[in-house]
């Protein structure tokens, strides 16, 4: 009888253990699970079309049906993040803050021993960190990135074969491989020193994987964009960047975020005509969260083509955009547009608006404000050459520069611009001896100036010597770029980060 009783007790224990196991794995109705059902997949697609109100409504309805589906929480939070990130509208941020915090808390409290939970939380915290960075709330951003890294690290230990984590972990590893001095506190806060090659390899492993269910289509698009940005900005491989993003963004005429990603990489890789045609085909804003930054980019593209109507797109951006970033830069471009027309009075008005509008948080806006405060009208031919170079119309730019006599340039800034721009054109056309001659002249003439020309020239010399496998000379100029131009006030963090990335590549 006692043996029968013990047997019954063991059976009960095993049954209870089985039930608890099922509950923790999300296999029983009412337990937490991650299921990309048809409505979640539909909403995920709508995210990239920026039909964010539709996404929120769909996910609210889906949550009412099944509050334990972590996929619903993730997609809903992504809609809120994109709405705040794209509009930078303080009213939207305030209105969404409570529900955003609730979704994050819900995900954290979910009892779910599955890799998707760690991934979702890392994604959410990176989203929040990016918003805090945009708002200039650096400490809060650092805390968020630290939390994201914690969840990624835990996931890597528990679920090493879960490849979607490679998107975020690989990206963070690349970013933290060359942290500018002003952000070293963030690296210390997180306790993480990234490695570029490891980060790129992680992202590549995910992109090349055979994970092809529908949710991975969009996750791989995100990973491809992150990978491409790293290849361009830090690894100095713009062709790899473009080849990576190209196949993922062929639907740019109908999907807004694909339009943005394709235009951005076309911009960075010197494909201005591609950028122009992509943006001219951008989907209409009706029924979407308007993405006015695309108007800013289109204005840039047209300005480089010297199109007469470029200013109209900057006016749309400055009037309708509710955020603070790129506003100063847009007013600088408006000033340039009117300088090209010979209307220096209106150009100076836009320089004045640049000084009093927006915020000087990002490097483009800091440089724009510095230029606007000086309010030096550009020699028109030099400005045309600068814009044509930015569009990668190299022969046209050099033809203009060859007609500019240095003796007619009355300000040091424009003398430096003349030689720096010639150096860049020679460099891009692989005439490296001529490029080095011009860069070295700029370094010598501009080393005590507040402009970026000398520091960026040192960086470019480092890149040339790196390509020629002259490692000691490359190290010398990368170190010079980040250490020896204390007077420079433009693009300081960008130069330092790129120089550090170069030094890391040489140390392998």
Q: What fold name stands as the CATH topology of the domain at 392-508?
A: Serine Threonine Protein Phosphatase 5, Tetratricopeptide repeat
Number of strands: 0
Quaternary status of these chains?
Answer: single chain
**Structural class by helix and strand composition:** mainly alpha
Fraction in beta strands? under 5%
Share of helix, binned: over 70%
Q: Give the CATH H-level superfamily of the domain at 392-508.
A: Tetratricopeptide repeat domain
Q: Which sheet architecture does the biggest sheet show?
A: none
Mean pLDDT: 92
CATH class wording of the domain at 392-508: Mainly Alpha
Note poorly predicted spans: 1-8, 11-29
Order of helices and strands: HHHHHHHHHHHHHHHHHHHHHHHHHH
- Intertermini distance: 73 Å
Please tell me what the overall shape is.
Answer: globular
At CATH's second level, what is the architecture of the domain at 392-508? Alpha Horseshoe
SS field, number of helical segments:
26
Cα-atom Rg, whole angstroms? 26 Å
How would you briefly describe this protein structure?
This protein has 508 residues and is mainly alpha-helical. The chain has helices at 2-25, 38-48, 52-65, 70-87, 90-109, 115-134, 138-158, 165-175, 184-190, 196-207, 214-233, 238-245, 256-268, 272-280, 293-304, 310-320, 327-340, 344-356, 363-374, 380-390, 394-402, 412-428, 432-446, 453-467, 471-483, 492-506.
């Amino acid at each position: 009888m006692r043996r029968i009783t013990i047997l019954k007790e063991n059976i009960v224990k095993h049954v209870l253990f089985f039930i608890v196991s099922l509950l923790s794995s999300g296999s029983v109705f009412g337990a937490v699970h991650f299921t990309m059902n048809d409505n979640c997949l539909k909403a995920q697609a709508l995210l990239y079309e920026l039909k964010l109100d539709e996404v929120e409504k769909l996910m609210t309805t889906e949550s009412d049906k099944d509050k334990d589906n972590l996929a619903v929480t993730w997609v809903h939070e992504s809609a809120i993040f994109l709405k705040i990130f794209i509009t930078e509208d303080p009213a939207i941020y305030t209105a969404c803050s409570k529900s955003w915090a609730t979704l994050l808390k819900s995900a954290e409290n979910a009892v779910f021993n599955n890799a998707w939970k760690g991934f979702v939380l890392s994604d959410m915290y990176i989203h929040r960190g990016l918003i805090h960075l945009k708002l200039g709330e650096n400490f809060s951003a650092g805390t968020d990135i630290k939390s994201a890294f914690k969840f990624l690290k835990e996931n890597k230990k528990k679920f090493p074969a879960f490849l979607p984590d490679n998107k975020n972990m690989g990206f963070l590893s690349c970013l933290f491989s060359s942290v500018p001095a002003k952000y070293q506190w963030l690296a210390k806060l997180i306790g993480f020193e990234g490695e570029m090659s490891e980060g790129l390899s992680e992202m590549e492993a995910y992109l090349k994987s055979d994970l092809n269910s529908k949710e991975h289509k969009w996750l791989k698009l995100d990973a491809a964009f992150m990978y491409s940005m790293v290849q361009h900005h830090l690894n100095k491989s713009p062709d790899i960047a473009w080849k990576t993003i190209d196949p993922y963004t062929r639907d740019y005429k109908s999907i807004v975020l694909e339009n943005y990603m394709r235009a951005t990489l076309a911009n960075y890789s010197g494909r201005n005509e591609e950028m122009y045609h992509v943006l001219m085909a951008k989907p209409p804003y009706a029924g979407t969260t308007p993405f006015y930054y695309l108007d800013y980019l289109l204005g840039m593209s047209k300005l480089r083509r010297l199109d007469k109507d470029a200013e109209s797109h900057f006016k749309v951006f400055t009037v309708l955009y509710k955020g603070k970033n790129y506003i100063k830069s847009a007013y600088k471009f408006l000033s340039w547009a009117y300088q090209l027309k010979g209307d220096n009075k209106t150009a100076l008005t836009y320089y004045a608006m640049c000084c009093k509008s927006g915020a000087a948080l990002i490097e483009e806006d800091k440089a724009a404000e510095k230029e606007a405060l000086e309010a030096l009208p550009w020699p028109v031919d030099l400005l045309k050459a600068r814009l044509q170079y930015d569009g990668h119309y190299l022969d046209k730019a050099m033809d203009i520069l060859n007609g500019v006599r240095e003796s007619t340039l009355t300000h040091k800034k424009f003398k430096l611009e003349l030689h720096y721009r010639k150096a860049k054109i020679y460099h891009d056309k692989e005439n490296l001896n001529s490029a080095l001659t011009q860069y070295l002249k700029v370094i010598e003439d501009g080393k005590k100036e507040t402009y970026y020309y000398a520091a960026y020239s040192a960086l470019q010399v480092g890149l040339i010597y790196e390509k020629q496998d002259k490692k000691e000379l490359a190290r010398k100029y990368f170190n010079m770029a980040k250490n020896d131009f204390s007077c420079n006030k433009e693009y300081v963090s960008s130069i330092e980060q790129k120089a550090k990335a170069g030094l890391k590549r040489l140390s392998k």
